[in-house]
Write a structure and sequence with these properties.
globular, cell membrane, transmembrane, membrane
Amino acid sequence: MHSTELSKRHWLLIFTLTLLTFVLGTSEFVIVGILTDISSGLHITNAKAGTLVSAFAITFAITTPLVMSVTSHFPKRKWMLFLIGSFIILNALCVISTGYIMLLALRMMTAIVTGVLISLAMIVASETMPIAKRGLAISFVFGGFTLANVIGVPIGTVIAEWYNWNATFLLTTFLGGIAFLASFFILPNMVSQFRSSMRDQFSLLTHPRILMAFFIPSLGFGATYAVYTYLVPILKGMEAPSNSISLILFGYGFISIFSNILAGKIASYNAIGRLRLVFLVQAIVLVSLYWTTNNLILGLINIGLMSLMAILLTTSTQLYLIDLAGIYQPRATGLAASLMPVASNIGIAFGSAVGGIVYHQGNLISVTLVGGLIAIFASLLTFLSHHLDQKQMKPA
């Protein structure tokens, strides 16, 4: 694409990919909102129902790079339509699921489809847009996940309350059908990558620069989720009214929409250079919570700033991984596109686990200090990556 402006066709494609990530995000995240309904409906404990969440995340993280490597040469349009069709079938089967094992297996298969579709959506957004507009396009695509948390999950939760948890999967099945129709008419025919061996693909992961880039979003998400995972008990400790907590969480999600918009702006120029400062500001915001949570108003303002900082890294690190793959292993850009979603899942698991250790030591509010420390490590790693980029650009 030689043009620097987005055409009507570009915008239609962006909105189609955003719709797709909204549907995938709703399917992935809504399980948290209906967890107690599932546990009572299937006569299992909440802890056992919780394995549906962890199994999804683990399957997503392990299988996405593997499947992306094996299928890198597949025609993207046909492959995406097949996967969206599979998503519809799997969610429809969840509607009639009557047992834990069946639901677990269906969720794990859905995780495989979800991870690959997200990665393909990022590749399509990256490869079909004018270079100057890639950041904007990918920020919109990531915005689908934000909208899933703000709109999709609450609607799915309400449907479960009105009817039952099976009905929530009717919603995701219906949304999947809309995404399929939009994709069928809008997705372009794209030239597939050349076939390359698994060894060639995974050689990408042995390069130090790729590994450094991978851990930047891992640490960035880890910093946020060390605190966000325990936000409800923090709010209760701030003596926030119980009937206002849902509204506060909705506000948190709403503010993250603006975080996603800013993410596209940051990615437009010198993204990694800017992220160095983003992580430092994030560290200050998280550490400040240690004191501001003593006052309800100040604490809520600080939590709003935490949401604003939460996903500023997404677009920049997604493009960075793809661009680095173009330098070090051009045949593995598909694998590279899958690394950002995997890194975010690993970061979420890491941050939640570290925050949990601190929480269970008896000092809940110390999770804010841990989150700030992790953000500082993310900044240091970004400083190093930026320094190496600048060094590489200097003429010999």
